[in-house]
Write a structure and sequence with these properties.
With about 270 residues, the chain is of the alpha+beta class. It is built from ten helices and nine strands. This is IclR family transcriptional regulator.
């Protein structure tokens, strides 16, 4: 298979490549990462080699290294690879307000204005959810949702939205892997009871939890559903219960959040 193409092709005089400084190994690593369409894409070694134009043996070494460093994740069952959310750590403020997806950010901003609370766009990796974009509440006292922060999926509202659409066996695996403290927080000892909770979440179309990370706060999440019928992400609103009691959350948040979900789904072409 052909090696990577010369990336210097088409460079202007000002951009002319200085091969004394250029490190081709770095180019190959980035070419492998660029083979993925997005964080949810999964590829086999052969597919990565085909997309990147790098020989399979070299791809195998690069993928092994990137997996060991945590930038790629491997599905043990299928032996396929995908981008890890650890990419956020080297992207810095990529998902911050200045460089975020403008359509998703606009929807989050409108939701934050309407509700007065912190809003976020949430992704998932295995047993964790990750904050990909967020807009803070206008209030001085608010729930902080820093980009890149992770939470265990089992107890988090957004995690429960994702798990509600999972195969029961996969959801049970996530539940069993959760820390004992997570199950204690839910006051649920067995998966049978937890599966009933997930069923209620899916039936009503949202998850609502009280958060341990911020004292007396709540978190409400709705899914944005992809063409395959599975969530591609979740819209979240987090608020202090001193301002938004749990008993009022559905009445005050559900319709604005549904509107945000529709806007994001349209922006994503769903």
């Amino acid at each position: 298979m052909a090696d990577t193409q010369d990336q210097s092709a088409g460079l202007s005089a000002e951009q002319e490549l200085d091969r004394r400084l250029y490190v081709q190994v770095v180019e190959r690593n980035m070419t492998v990462l660029q083979s993925f369409d997005g964080g949810r894409s999964s590829l086999s070694l052969s597919e990565i080699a085909e997309r990147s134009g790098i020989g399979r043996s070299a791809v195998q070494r690069i993928v092994y290294t990137l997996s060991h460093l945590g930038y790629l994740r491997r599905d043990e069952a299928t032996q396929r690879f995908g981008l890890s959310s650890q990419i956020l750590q080297i992207c810095g403020g990529m998902f911050g307000s200045e460089t975020a997806d403008p359509e998703i950010l606009s929807a989050l901003q409108a939701l934050a204005v309407e509700t007065g609370e912190s809003t976020a766009w949430i992704g998932r990796e295995a047993d964790e959810i990750i904050i990909l974009q967020s807009v803070r509440s206008r209030h001085f006292s608010h729930v902080s949702l820093p980009v890149g922060k992770r939470f265990g999926a089992v107890t988090a509202a957004s995690g429960q939205i994702f798990l509600a659409y999972d195969d029961l066996k996969d959801a049970e695996t996530a539940f069993n892997r959760a820390a004992n403290t997570a199950r204690e927080r839910l006051n649920i000892a067995d998966f049978g009871a937890y599966s009933q909770l997930l069923g209620r979440v899916k039936d009503r179309g949202y998850a609502l939890t009280e958060k341990a990370e911020d004292l007396y706060s709540l978190s409400m999440s709705l899914a944005v559903i992809g063409a395959d019928g599975l969530p591609v992400g979740a819209v979240n609103v987090s608020a202090l219960q001193s301002r938004l009691p749990k008993a009022e959350a559905e009445a005050r948040l559900l319709e604005p959040m549904r509107s945000a979900v529709r806007r994001i789904a349209q922006a994503l072409g769903l």
